[in-house]
Amino acid sequence: QQEMIRLVIDITRVPLSHHPPFCSPQTLSPQLGTPFTQPLGGQLGEARVGLSAELDRLWEQFGRPIIMTEFGADTMAGMHGQPPVMWTEEYQADYIRFHLEEAEKRDYVAGMQVWNFADFAAVQSIMRVGGLNMKGVFTRQRTPKMAAHVLREFWVDRAQKGEPSPRQAVSDTQRTDKELSR
Questions:
Q1: Which of 45, 72, 149, 150 could form a disulfide with 115 if both were Cys (CB 3.0 to 4.6 A apart)?
Q2: Where are the alpha helices (DSSP H) in 16-113?
Q3: Please, which pLDDT band fits residue 84 given cuts at 50, 70 and 90?
Q4: Closest listed residue to residue 23, CA positions, set 73, 64, 79
Q5: 41 in the Ramachandran plot: left (φ > 0), alpha (ψ -120 to 50) or beta?
Q6: So what's the pLDDT on residue 56?
Q7: pLDDT score at 22
Q8: Under DSSP, is residue 156 helix (H, G, I), strand (E, B) or coil?
Q9: What phi, psi does 124 have (nearest 5°)?
Q10: Whole-angstrom Cα distance, residue 62 to residue 54?
């Protein structure tokens, strides 16, 4: 136990430049992360292009694995619309799906954290209907939204069917010299 505690302490003392950069819509410190701008007006196509460019820019700049944190979209459970518009379950599902797809294309994305597991009470404001943060893939009562099914399809259903992800299908010989040199 003492050995494990010592290891954790030693790891936390490693200079920040050795840690993977974080890509997050919400950034607390420029040393800890880089902000990705949320799509204004619900333009999912523009947001996907922006995310793709930002991930590639971070890779070019740091040359280290990237951890994507806190990506999600507020959603009123039961609200639907076509085309997907802000606050609908379709919008949240598409927003999370394109983050998963863009990350999956890149070997240098080391991890992801969807924001958030379930809706929760937050500070009242004009941005918080009913004083709730509704970015959860489950409601406060733990009923799944469409986005929960996207996550299941992406991670569980593929594995059960034995389908490799696009990342698994790429062999080392298909990677560029630049990717292998980092």
A1: 72
A2: 44-62, 89-104
A3: very high
A4: 64
A5: left
A6: 92
A7: 59
A8: helix
A9: -65, 135
A10: 12
